[in-house]
Design goal:
The complex is a heterodimer of chains A (239) and B (240). Chain A has one domain: MetI-like (MetI-like fold, Orthogonal Bundle). Helix content of chain A is 82%, strand content 0%. Chain A contains nine helices and no strands. With 240 residues, chain B is an alpha/beta fold. Helices cover 38% and strands 25% of the residues of chain B. A six-stranded mixed beta sheet of chain B has the order 6-7-8-3-9-10, with helices on both faces. In chain B, strands 2-1-4-5 form a four-stranded antiparallel beta sheet, with helices on one face. In chain B, helix 3 crosses helix 4. Chain B is globular. The chains are: A mainly alpha (239), B alpha/beta (240). The interface between A and B is medium-sized, with 24 and 32 residues. Bound molecules: adenosine-5'-triphosphate (ATP) and magnesium ion.
Chain lengths: 239, 240
């Protein structure tokens, strides 16, 4: 019994402490977080653009259809259909081994793949958020003579953003976990490091369980922060 | 000032405005009354194209605003609108609510707009609320802010859609007071309201709408003392 425990401790020692291996996990986690944050921002920008185009298209007044807007709208639909209709794993493999096969900056390739994927989901979240804002708000903006984009930018989007903050938090968590898929194209994030150490020690159990615990800890911390932020926002509504 | 010819509006196959002809002259205070669902709001909202008319033309200051090529943003800058539910922007301070449109439409610099906002707030006795958010105000205060927000654009005409209907009774007076002052200054106004006292006192002309038509119109004294149509008499006997 005691011997068994000692054996496991030894395995973990070998996977984490020996040769300062913990530094590899740390650098992997750093890259994981970097990819998450940059891809999230990238995806959000993409999502807002797509959502505004699609909403603007749907809100056009009859008899005043704009051809350019119809083309953009068709492109946006195509984009969300393809991204949401294919597995993320396959998308990342295509980015890494087909489109950017010769690129050596695999982290960047991963960010592009994750960001473009996230944008398609963020677009739907943002679109829902835009629709959740009372139409009286945009009517008031337009009745003052503000144009469509200014009304969106100063009035509707800020209010929509507040409404969708919880969904965006969830998107952050999803994206954070999905970065692990990028190990397949060789970006040196947390899962990649765990796999490498596992391979070197011929023992995958300690590094994989360890990395799972690291992911879990970060998600728990983030969920807690998110809850706090939401309570704060709800209070500011009640003042 | 505003000329309406054969204006019709349907939602699907529901005809809400039935070929309305109307002319609003500068300085007039036109009060629109009528039963719920008669098309009052729809008529008012067509005047600044918040609703797209199904047929007919509207001309404002010589421009045909129903023309697809008309610059609707420019036209709306000259027509203020006040809504039943205020529609202040909750994500901005009162000052920014007032200055956003004049600054973004390049009517004023930020400094000019700030001065205008201060002067307008003083006028309605709310200058200390400049840095508050809408959620911190009472309904009557919100509606007074909504009125000066529209005034900051220096409009030529003001449209009001039941501006006091969402207010607690004790706040109706303060809003009507602001509207009366505005009327005295000579503003052209089109007001949908259920406040018959206001119609009598401030209106220069009363329109009675029913079933998507303007059934009867007259100057207030004659309108209320001697209504011609049976439908008008029925309606007035219910609300007076
Ligand atoms: N966006 C819309 N879609 C479909 N029907 C509508 C729409 N807006 C208004 N209507 C219908 O048009 C009719 C007239 O509405 P409108 O709001 O102009 O009436 P109103 O005279 O202002 O009534 P109230 O006194 O209740 O405000 C109503 O039957 C209403 O249901
Ligand atoms: Mg109405």
């Amino acid at each position: 019994m005691l011997e068994g425990l000692m054996g496991i401790a030894g395995k973990f020692y070998k996977a984490f402490i020996e040769g300062e291996r913990w530094k590899l996990y740390l650098s992997g986690l750093g890259i994981t977080l970097e990819m998450t944050v940059v891809a999230l921002i990238f995806g959000m920008v993409l999502g807002v653009v797509v959502a505004v185009i699609r909403t603007a298209h749907d809100q056009q007044r009859p008899g005043r259809r704009n051809i350019l807007l119809s083309i953009l709208n068709a492109l946006c639909k195509l984009y969300t259909t393809i991204i949401r209709g294919t597995p993320m794993m396959v998308q990342i493999l295509i980015w890494g081994f087909v489109i950017f096969a010769s690129s050596r900056d695999k982290v960047m390739v991963g960010i592009i793949g994750l960001g473009i994927n996230s944008g398609a989901y963020a677009a739907e979240i943002v679109r829902g958020g835009l629709m959740s804002v009372d139409v009286g708000q945009s009517e008031a903006g337009r009745s003052l003579g503000l144009n469509y984009l200014d009304t969106m930018r100063f009035i509707v989007i800020p209010q929509a953003f507040k409404n969708i903050l919880p969904s965006l938090g969830n998107e952050f968590i999803t994206l954070f976990k999905d970065t692990s898929l990028v190990n397949t194209i060789g970006a040196a994030e947390l899962t990649y490091q765990a796999m490498r150490i596992g391979g070197r020690n011929y023992d995958y159990m300690p590094p994989l369980i360890g990395s799972a615990l690291i992911y879990l800890a970060i998600v728990i911390i983030f969920t807690w922060l998110q809850g706090k932020l939401e309570r704060r926002l709800r209070q500011s509504d009640r003042r | 000032m505003i000329d309406v010819k054969a204006l019709s509006k349907s939602f699907g196959d529901h005809l809400v405005l039935d070929s309305i002809d109307q002319h609003i002259y500068p300085g007039e205070k036109v009060v629109i009354i009528g039963p719920s669902g008669s098309g009052k709001s729809t008529f008012l909202r067509c005047l600044n194209l918040l609703e797209e008319p199904s047929a007919g033309t509207i001309t404002f200051d010589g421009q045909v605003i129903t023309d697809p090529k008309a610059d609707i943003d420019k036209i709306r800058q000259q027509m203020g609108m006040v809504f039943q539910h205020f529609n202040l922007f909750p994500n901005m301070t009162i000052r920014r609510n007032i200055t956003l449109a004049p600054v973004r439409t390049k009517l004023m610099s930020q400094a000019e707009a700030d001065d205008t906002a201060t002067a307008l707030l003083k006028r309605v006795g709310l200058e200390e609320k400049a840095d508050a958010y809408p959620a911190q105000l009472s309904g009557g205060q919100k509606q007074r802010i909504a009125i000066v927000r529209a005034l900051a654009m220096k409009p030529k005409v003001m449209l009001f859609d039941e501006p006091t209907s969402a207010l607690d009774p004790e706040m109706v007076g303060e809003v009507l007071e602001v509207m009366k002052e505005l009327a005295q200054e000579g503003m052209t106004m089109v007001v949908v309201t259920h406040e018959m006292g206001f119609a009598r006192e401030v209106g220069t002309r009363v329109l009675f709408m029913d079933g998507g038509k303007i059934l009867e119109e007259n100057e207030p004294h004659a309108f209320f003392s001697d209504p011609k149509e049976q439908r008008t008499r029925d309606f007035l006997s219910k609300v007076l």
